[in-house]
Amino acid sequence: MIMSRIETMTFASVYPLYLAKVEKKGRTKEELDTIIRWLTGFNQETLEQMIEGTQTFPEFFAQANLHPNIHQIKGVICGVRIENIEDPLMKNIRYLDKIVDELAKGKAIEKIMR
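Above: the chain sequence. Below: its structure as tokens.
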């Protein structure tokens, strides 16, 4: 059940939630976009298309060229240890969630972009 809901969610519907979370903690859209571009390999133009588009999370990550250091993102997100997630889509979503959380918690961008 959870997977079918996640598979139908669009990146555009979640991005404003990410933005609100980081702005509430004093961070900026530019910082959020920087870490998302680092994770996905998108340039700003492509990211803007994704923010305004209708791509679901599977489509979003299918178009991404994930950073080779993505495996260095570790820890717990939503009560689940990222390293233990087996489903590739869910793992990628949790990587994204984790770096957004790190940004919101004040971690330096240079440390987020391992």
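The mean pLDDT is 94.
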